[in-house]
Design goal:
With about 1000 residues, chain A is an alpha+beta fold. Chain A contains 30 helices and 41 strands. In chain A, a hairpin with a 2-residue loop joins strand 32 (about 785-790) and strand 33 (about 795). In chain B, helix 4 packs across helix 5. The chains are: A alpha+beta (about 1000), B alpha/beta (about 260). At the A-B interface, helix 1, helix 2, helix 3, helix 14 and helix 16 of A face helix 1, helix 2, helix 4, strand 5 and strand 6 of B.
């Protein structure tokens, strides 16, 4: 097959902003000076095209005649020393290449032949660098060698360029492989453990023994012989069991029997999930009437109004993001979108949330093997979420970026999505789904490749030297967008009875789950559409290739479903049918290759028994350095600029905040649209003023001091963010995402008991605070092996709970933003300020952790939240901002500069003598509120009974002045405060 | 008379819901139509008075923003679109839709020819950004979509929105023909003069939108469908604003014009 190369670049006489940005990035990240860079898009056409056809696609499709030059089989690079070309490795999704193929076919008016294709690569013409330096730029910045290949050429070498590709065509050339292996389990314990490890099954000895014994049963041997199956499990059977029983899918730790011990005594916990998470939801369900489906589906579902239901889900994608930040995070966001698209009979996604936990981007130490610098990780995950969300047309509503040194070992990438649907579609409740025997199993969306094989088991392990590159996937938001549009149409036409997404575990997981209700399934894996030949049957079933959903389509709807799919250019393939045989059966080319009892598959997993013992924390003595005599101004500026406090605007602005046109409160508020909002608010139903507010809370900095406080503060932070915009308790639903270091005691985890005890304490806090605030947990997820272990280096993340909260608002026209609205308004601090400097940003800047982590008093907080809600509802509040990281000084400064009005504040009414504590303590359940003078009396009357302190007044003069009880003070112009807050991450 | 509006969907278009809503609120009988259905049922286009190409990421903005969809429209719907335009009907392209229109030559439509004369290049910041901008209608514009609108605030949400004309002659011709419709301005109404963030992308002459010589075919980078309600505005909690968002007037103008003229 002939290949041709089409190069496209900015015209010579025009500047190349992408090249200029690249030079700056290389200088900043790698400290390498590149004199100039020009970026060239390269399309390799591996197709039999005539010269005329080539010329036509070059001119019409690939070139913007206003600003670009292009050439066929000739280089456009000029005045350079080295050219780096980067392209994908074989088998990696090439989204641009695929769109280009469609464009070529449109232009030529004919389809290309099978095997012909278009492949995208990018060339960088660099001047001022030698070959060795160019290679460093390539491997350090331009290419991720896990998914990309690169080549470096000098200008002299490029002179001989013709149509021959510089890089190997990214085509997988393998023969099809129908081999089904048998795996003997008649092994010693040590051999069973080795087998689990070598095949990446992530099963422990007890689990391996249960599987061995299952196959050893005489009746099992007889029935297998009759079915024509070997006595030993086939490779696909063992893989299905390992995936279904993975920590990722079965949440073994959350369902374990735990013997817990701390200084107050012993107790036994029969499942953290049942005791605390489901436990609190069951209690609260007695008081809130709007729960529809919790813990059963891909996402939690609640009643939004009389005619609509709302679904919420958040997930993590930590392990893939550690290896490939961009691809890992993108598949995180588009993956959680599919959870909502596959909840009930399907919901339209209406917002995304995203929270990243990473190491400091300014880290200067050694980067351990296989890890990437936190700056590169942050840029990558941000770009992945940005492209995934923006291209899917789903607005980003809320999120956070959290920095901690131990996230160097594994970044956490949380992605959440909310969705809405009519409560009834096609005469049926949208929240009810069930495949029936005889329904056809249909897979829609993308094709299957080797990408993402073993993702479920991989994420159930620490990151180690053998962590597989195949665990990485690249998302394709446009394929998914087409599929989502199509599925919502099919839903409204009533063309299917059940739907679920293909996420972790792929078809094995989706079909295995959907087959529970009908009681079995028969799958013909040779019918599955593949990206390329060469996948063994078990790989087809386990692949986590993206953008796929599995549906149950009644036979009489199949033609209509397939016809609509064709018209929407969405691939849909019937793979078999659901049955009531009690077995999950897989066939390949007519032969039975797997038959697993549904009961054993789903309920055969032995329960874990774990030990937890809370060690008392030896906290460093607290030191309050007096700072610069009495003046706290420079301390406040430093805290405003600290990583966990400073503005994240340069990241967040790159997300689309308001596609769908439902936006009510955005991330940035105030006169310059730069003040940090507390919660995002939308009105999701056209013509209705009913709204949703969305927020999050996450406080890993308190974990080492007090895991209970860490979780309690996370819940409180999320809730007070909602209350700050006007939400009321009783209308708030929560979602928990636990990310933990391995909490199972072992030789490599000698402190597993303590980490498990921290998990127990966090669950207790979650239960206590949610119960007090009437918050049901409608969905959640855990990720339990967030450790890095290579050689002697072990890095475990700080135990982390992300709490996502969503409130239903009666009338969005009543919500309040955080910016001060005028001069002469009274300034109030609500809630109690105490000596709770442990984990504070103030102490962190001094390299100390302190001792007293903030504690939540849920009953008094509840009373305050109810009163504040009444005040907002009555229109008495001009601005409201929650007090969190950095303390009161930060909240005052942010409210002031967001509104463009100064403040003069005296903190002595708070009853805290020490000014450092008053300004920088991070006590929970507090707000800064401003009130117009005509409303102060009514406001104070409404708040009476809860702690409120009138501390000052707003002013036209753009200066923040704070005087503390002990005479400490601060005094700064708003522009100075704002710059301190904005400059740190102004990338 | 019922004014019929067709709002295009499919292949990564993602502002179709709110664009459809805007036309409905403006009094049109609007429907969302998938591109493949439109190609299959050309009568849907023939019966419509207004065609909207909404914002989004058609085909992922691969190759260049709007390029692959522009290419498909030209090859699969070129003739019917020429008929539609020749019939004096109205077209709006918003953000990605504007990119599609300029790349297939549906704008600026000098002498009725589908030729690319201008482009929308990467923003000077090289970034996709979502921010609100102030816009001023060019006083002499022929654009019927902007009747009685002097200024309006709208969100921009794009990475490739920097307006560039092929050369000075093209830009002059746009000005002479009154085809420059909308410009980025400063909050006080004076020219943005290229200054970021008032001009968010570095567009030549601060141009945010252009129309064809008849004023009926209009493309713009900002999102008028993104400001249908007061609450969409980022400062609505501090400003006295009308309950109806200012963006809706753009759609009302078109529906009104179609009702009178078509």
């Amino acid at each position: 097959m002939p290949t041709h190369r089409i190069e496209v670049a900015m015209k010579r006489d025009l500047p190349d902003p992408a090249g200029e940005a690249l030079c700056a990035r290389v200088q900043e990240d790698l400290e390498i000076r590149v004199e100039s860079a020009r970026v060239i898009d390269v399309y390799t056409l591996n197709a039999a095209l005539s010269e005329e056809e080539l010329e036509r696609v070059r001119a019409e499709l690939f070139t913007d005649p206003i600003i670009q030059d292009s050439a066929v089989d000739r280089s456009l690079a000029f005045d350079y020393d080295c050219l780096v070309e980067v392209g994908f490795l074989p088998g990696v999704t090439d989204n641009v290449g695929r769109s280009a193929l469609e464009g070529v076919q449109d232009t030529l008016g004919r389809n290309l032949a099978p095997g012909e294709g278009v492949y995208k690569s990018t060339a960088y013409a660099l001047s001022g660098v030698d070959r060795e330096t160019a290679s460093r730029v390539a491997s350090g910045l331009l290419a991720n060698e896990l998914i990309e290949q690169f080549v470096v050429k000098t200008e002299a070498e490029m002179k001989t360029l013709d149509g021959t590709p510089l890089l190997a065509l990214p085509v997988v050339t393998q023969q099809s492989d129908a081999t089904v292996g048998e795996i003997a389990l008649d092994l010693s314990d040590a051999e069973l453990v080795a087998l689990s490890r070598d095949r990446m099954l992530a099963l422990d000895l007890e689990e391996m023994r249960v599987i061995r014994d299952y196959y050893a049963r005489p009746e099992m041997r007889a029935s297998r012989e009759k079915a024509g199956l070997p006595a030993a499990p086939t490779d696909i059977e063992l893989e299905i069991l390992a995936q279904t029983w993975s920590e990722h899918c079965k949440h073994k730790i959350f369902n374990a029997l735990i013997a817990y011990e701390d200084e107050t005594g012993h107790r036994q916990i029969d499942s953290l999930f049942k005791t605390y998470i489901k436990g609190v939801t069951d209690e609260v369900a007695k008081r809130v009437p709007w729960l529809v489906s919790v813990f059963e589906d891909n996402a939690g579902i609640i009643q939004f109004d009389g005619a609509h239901v709302f679904a919420l889900k958040a997930e993590t994608h930590n392990s893939p993001s550690a290896l490939d930040p961009y691809g890992g995070a993108m598949t995180g966001i588009v993956g959680v979108n599919r959870d909502v698209l596959g909840a009930g009979l399907g919901f339209q996604c209406i917002f995304n949330t995203d929270v990243f936990c990473v190491g400091s981007p300014f880290y200067t130490g050694e980067i351990p093997p296989r890890l990437q610098h936190p700056k590169r990780v942050l840029r990558g995950v941000h770009s992945g979420v940005r492209d995934g969300g923006n291209q899917s047309g789903i607005p980003d509503l809320n999120g956070a970026i959290v920095f901690h040194e131990r996230f160097l070992g594994k970044p956490l990438v949380f992605c959440g999505t909310g969705g809405i649907s009519p409560a009834v579609v096609g005469g049926k409740p949208v929240s009810e789904k069930a495949a029936r025997p005889g329904d056809v199993i249909v897979m829609t969306g993308g094709r299957i490749g080797k990408d993402g094989i073993h993702g479920a088991t991989f994420s159930s392990e620490a990151l180690h030297e053998g962590s597989p590159a195949t665990a990485v996937q690249i998302g394709d938001p446009i394929t998914q967008k087409k599929m989502a549009d199509f599925l919502l149409e099919a839903r409204d036409l009533g063309l299917y009875t059940c739907i679920t997404d293909d996420g972790a575990g792929g078809l094995s997981s989706s079909i295995g789950e959907m087959a529970r209700k009908p009681g079995g399934a028969a799958v013909h894996l040779d019918k599955a559409p593949l990206k390329y030949a060469g996948l063994a049957p078990w790989e087809i079933f386990l692949s986590e290739a993206q953008e796929r959903m599995t549906l149950a389509v009644p036979p009489d709807c199949l033609d209509g479903f397939m016809d609509l799919a064709r018209r929407r250019e969405v691939e849909a393939t019937a793979l078999g049918e659901f049955t009531n045989t009690g077995r999950l059966e897989c066939y390949f080319e007519g032969s039975l290759i797997a038959a697993l009892d549904m009961d054993f598959l789903h309920d055969g997993l032995p329960r874990m028994h774990l030990e937890a013992r809370l060690e008392s924390v030896q906290a460093a003595p607290e030191l309050l350095l007096p700072g610069d005599a009495n003046d706290l101004t420079s301390d406040l500026l430093a805290v405003l600029g600290s990583l966990n406090v400073c503005s994240k605007e340069s990241f967040v602005r790159m997300y689309d905040h308001e596609v769908l046109g439902q936006s009510v409160l955005k991330q940035f508020q105030g006169i310059r649209h730069e003040g940090p909002g507390d919660a995002g608010v939308i009105k999701p139903v056209s013509g209705s003023e009913r709204g949703l507010a969305v927020s999050c809370g996450i406080c890993p900095k308190y974990s080492d001091l007090d895991a209970y406080a860490m979780a309690a503060c996370a819940v409180d932070e999320a809730v007070r963010n909602l209350v700050a915009v006007g939400a009321g308790l009783g209308n708030i639903a929560g979602l928990d995402n636990f990310c933990w270091p391995d909490p199972v005691q072992s030789a490599s985890t000698p402190d597993g008991r303590h980490k498990l005890a921290q998990l127990v304490r966090s669950c207790e806090a979650l239960y206590d605070v949610c119960l007090a605030y009437d918050i049901p947990l409608i969905s959640g997820k855990d990720s339990m092996k967030n450790d890095y272990r290579i050689g002697d280096t072990k890095i475990s993340i700080p135990p982390t709970l992300l709490f996502t909260a969503v409130a239903m608002l009666e009338d969005v026209r009543k919500v309040v933003s955080m910016d001060v609205k005028g001069a002469g308004h009274a300034v109030y601090v609500l809630g109690e300020t105490g000596d709770e400097m442990g984990g504070s940003e103030y102490l962190a800047l001094r390299g100390q952790s302190g001792a007293n982590a903030p504690q939540v008093s849920p009953l008094s907080a509840r009373a305050l939240y109810e009163r504040l809600h009444r005040a907002v509802n009555a229109g008495l509040v001009a601005s409201c901002h929650d007090v969190s990281d950095g303390g009161l000084g930060v909240a005052l400064a942010e409210s002031a500069f967001a509104g463009g009005y100064g403040m003069t504040v005296t903190l002595s009414p708070l009853g805290v003598e020490n000014g450092v504590i008053a300004v920088f303590s991070e006590s929970q359940s507090r707000f800064v509120v401003t009130v117009r003078p005509e409303h102060t009396a009514a406001f104070e009357a409404t708040l009476d009974g809860s702690p409120w302190y009138r501390v000052g007044e707003t002013s036209l003069e753009p200066v923040l002045r704070v005087i503390c009880g002990d005479g400490k003070m601060l005094n700064a112009e708003l522009s100075v405060l704002r710059d301190a807050w904005k400059n740190t991450l102004d990338w | 008379m019922t004014v019929k509006a067709v709002v295009l969907t499919g292949f990564g278009i993602n502002c179709d819901n709110e664009t459809h809503r805007a036309f409905c609120r403006a009094g049109a009988d609007a429907s969302r139509v998938h591109l493949n259905d439109l190609i299959e049922h050309l009568e849907l286009l023939d019966q419509a008075h207004i065609l909207a190409i909404p914002g989004g990421f058609s085909f992922g903005d691969h190759i260049a923003s709007g390029k692959v969809l522009a290419n498909r429209l030209r090859h699969k719907l070129g003739g019917p679109l020429e008929r539609f335009v020749a019939g004096g009907k109205l077209v709006i392209g918003i953000c990605n839709g504007f990119q599609v229109m300029v790349k297939m030559g549906l704008l600026p439509l000098f002498d009725g020819a589908f030729t690319q004369e201008v482009t929308l290049a990467w923003n000077n910041t090289c970034r996709f950004e979502n921010r609100w901008v102030h816009l001023g209608t060019a006083p002499d514009t022929a654009c019927v979509w902007l009747k009685d609108i002097e200024q309006l605030p709208l969100p921009v949400r794009h990475g490739e929105g920097k307006f560039i004309a092929r050369d000075g002659a093209v830009l002059q011709r746009l000005l002479d023909n009154h085809q420059v419709a909308l410009r980025y301005i400063r909050p006080d109404g004076t020219a943005a003069a290229g200054e970021f963030p008032y001009n968010p992308n570095g567009a030549a002459d601060d141009i945010a939108g252009i129309c064809d010589p008849s004023g009926r075919i209009f493309g713009l980078m900002p999102h008028p469908e993104g400001f249908q309600d007061r609450e969409n505005h980022p400062e609505w909690t501090r400003l006295p604003l009308q309950a109806e968002g200012a963006g809706l007037q753009v759609f009302r103008n078109a529906v009104e014009f179609a009702r009178k003229e078509l």
